[in-house]
Write a structure and sequence with these properties.
alpha/beta, 3 domains, about 50% helix, globular, 7-stranded parallel sheet, Rossmann fold, 14 helices, about 10% strand
């Protein structure tokens, strides 16, 4: 699993031979990220999070060096033990000589707008390992359990040579399904005491798991929870021939962590043999491309076609019912796209 020196050289070569778009400092920066310069990685993630133009240019360089990391999403309700499991699982991967990146998504502070860094505090035992990179991110109001730029931060850590990227979601409940679109494997933590609440999750987060971890398995009710999970799984058809296993664990003591890692390896092998991983990543990039397209078109329309004055005038027209919103939007989009070359010609490989 560890990235070889040969791969690093190929990645560095791919970056250095790209044409310059802004200045050579971007390329130097990208090379440092690929070389696992922790300061360069930190600056890269900060630039991506704040939406800097240089951050986008950097991502363009780093993309050629990405696509090798195994991305694992860890989700579950608050208090399920996600941070502890992530810490122990990261240690297990390090024992196998894998480089690990951790993205811990925290709720946004209503006062500062940043993350409270609670997950990072719990993972202090990993902070001294130079082959583990931990980054806390704020949700910034984003629904689905991830921060808005989580996808791009994964690209940075992937290009920086991380063999495994662990994403701990914020823990918001049954609508926290965004991580399943990004991750190669999704782990759902459950704890005893949920009782019949398992049934209420069926239409949401329960359906995205590739692996169930019954954490705090030493507490009363663990047997009942496992029975309910098995009953639910017996009525569901496994996606692409895979039935998500249930692994018992006590993350605080490390019990069951080896079994969790083994189950993830089994899922990875299954996905590779069944071409499921390629299908999942294809679905992801289709969705991601459309998402980026929507965002960029929206930003361009706002910056090029609408200012505060014209927007207020359109709102006045709507309030007085002089015009309808559907025709207005069609006109704005048509104006923004008119006589513009979007560079969507045939691929040079065709």
């Amino acid at each position: 699993m560890p990235v070889s020196g040969e791969w690093c050289e190929r990645a560095r070569s791919a970056i250095e031979t790209r044409p310059l778009h802004m200045d050579d400092s971007i390329d130097t920066w990208a090379v440092k990220v690929v070389a696992r310069d922790r300061r360069a990685i930190a600056r890269a993630i900060s630039a991506v999070e704040t939406g800097e133009a240089r951050g986008t240019e950097l991502l363009k360089r780093l993309f050629a060096a990405s696509g090798n990391a195994e991305v694992i999403g860890i989700t579950g309700s608050p208090g399920a033990g996600k941070s502890t499991l992530v810490e122990k699982l990261a240690g297990a991967y390090r024992n196998a000589d894998a480089r690990v990146g951790i993205i811990a998504v925290d709720p946004t502070s209503p006062f500062s707008g940043g993350a409270l860094l609670g997950d990072r505090i719990r993972m202090q035992g990993l902070s001294g390992d130079k082959d583990i990179y931990i980054r806390s991110m704020a949700t910034r109001g984003q629904l689905g359990g991830l921060a808005p730029t989580t996808h791009d931060v994964v690209t940075v850590l992937d290009a920086a040579g991380c063999d495994v990227v662990l994403i701990e979601t914020v823990g918001v409940g049954q609508d926290e399904v965004e991580v399943a679109r990004l991750a190669d494997a999704t782990v759902l933590l459950l704890v005893p005491g949920m009782g019949d609440d398992v049934q209420t999750f069926k239409a949401g987060v329960m359906e995205i798991a590739d692996l169930y971890v019954l954490n705090k398995a030493d507490l009363p009710g663990a047997d009942r929870l496992e029975q309910e999970l098995n009953a639910m799984l017996s009525m569901a058809s496994g996606g692409e021939g895979w039935r998500a296993p249930i692994v018992r664990a006590i993350a605080t003591t490390g019990s069951g962590i080896a079994e969790v890692k083994q189950a993830l390896q089994q899922f990875r092998c299954h996905q590779e043999q069944s071409a499921g991983k390629e299908k999942r990543r294809r679905r992801y990039w289709r969705s991601r491309l459309l998402e980026l397209l929507r965002h960029n078109l929206f930003e361009r329309v706002l910056s090029e076609r609408l200012d505060d004055g014209s927007l207020e005038q359109l709102i006045d027209d709507l309030l007085e019912h002089r015009r309808d919103p559907y025709s207005l939007v069609e006109g704005i989009v048509a104006g923004a796209l008119g006589a513009r070359d979007w560079g969507l010609g045939k691929s040079s490989t065709q």
